[in-house]
């Protein structure tokens, strides 16, 4: 009997060969030489395979936080590495990933879209945990909203990025995180990062 990972691999591989819309569970079963009931033992429906695919990205992201140098990174660099690792886990099958997202956005798929919103929220929460973010109350709410916006904007940018290693996406993400960092400092300290740097350097010239 095939494992859940093998079923996901087969389904995503078929999606790359034709399209995700055209993938049928009986095709997946045929590729693996198993029955539909074997597939059902792991996944109740095709959409569950999509969830499992994105769970892989979540897992890769959390593993990245275990790297020996991760704790020494700045908050911005931590988030940058986590998001790019999340995207990198999906990169070999970007076409299929893109089609999965478009499928969720089709009109009339409310039953798919609501769980998708919950999935986004869950990924962002794990991202904050992995990055060691510990803001509370109003600052936490703003941080979650900002990080969710950055994560989704970067995801959209990545889906059409053909640069080697998604380099353009990496630069785009760095710009977004830098802007958010400056905004956070301005809102909660009254000064932007550049202003803080300038005021700290001023006494050295006297």
Based on the model shown, name its key terms.
206 residues; mainly alpha; Arc Repressor Mutant, subunit A; Tetracycline Repressor, domain 2; 73% helix; disordered C terminus
Explain what the structure shows:
There is one protein chain. α7 (110-131) crosses α8 (137-159). This protein folds into 2 domains: 1-44, Arc Repressor Mutant, subunit A (Orthogonal Bundle), CATH 1.10.10; 46-205, Tetracycline Repressor, domain 2, CATH 1.10.357. The chain contains 10 helices and no strands. The chain is an all-alpha fold.
What is the gist of this entry?
The protein is mainly alpha-helical and 206 residues long.
Q: Can you name the CATH architecture of the largest domain? A: Orthogonal Bundle
Helix-strand topology string: HHHHHHHHHH
Subunit organisation of the chains: single chain
Task: Note the main sheet.
Answer: none
Average pLDDT for all residues: 89
Proportion of residues in β-strands: under 5%
Report the total helices.
10
Uncertain runs are 191-206
Structural class computed from helices and strand pairing: mainly alpha
Shape: elongated
Number of strands: 0
Stated plainly, the CATH topology of the largest domain is called Tetracycline Repressor, domain 2
Radius of gyration: 20 Å
Helix and strand topology:
Blueprint: H1 4-17, H2 25-32, H3 36-40, H4 46-64, H5 75-90, H6 94-105, H7 110-131, H8 137-159, H9 167-189, H10 193-201
């Amino acid at each position: 009997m095939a494992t859940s990972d093998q079923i996901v691999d087969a389904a995503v591989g078929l999606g790359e060969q034709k399209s995700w819309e055209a993938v049928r569970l009986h095709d997946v079963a045929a590729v693996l030489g198993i029955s539909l009931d074997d597939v059902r033992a792991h996944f109740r429906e095709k959409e569950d395979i999509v969830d499992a695919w994105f769970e892989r990205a979540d897992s890769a992201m959390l593993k990245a936080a275990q790297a020996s140098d991760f704790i020494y990174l700045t908050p911005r660099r931590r988030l940058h590495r986590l998001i790019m690792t999340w995207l990198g886990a999906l990169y070999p099958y970007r076409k299929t990933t893109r089609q999965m997202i478009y499928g969720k956005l089709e009109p009339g798929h409310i039953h798919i879209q609501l769980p998708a919103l919950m999935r986004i929220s869950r990924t962002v929460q794990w991202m904050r945990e992995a990055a060691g973010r510990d803001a509370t109350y109003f600052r936490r709410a703003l941080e979650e909203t900002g990080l969710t916006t950055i994560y989704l904007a970067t995801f959209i940018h990545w889906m059409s990025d053909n640069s080697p290693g998604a380099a353009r996406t990496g630069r785009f993400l760095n710009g977004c995180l830098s802007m958010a960092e400056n905004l956070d400092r301005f809102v909660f300290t009254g000064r932007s990062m550049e202003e803080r740097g300038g005021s700290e350097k001023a006494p050295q010239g006297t």
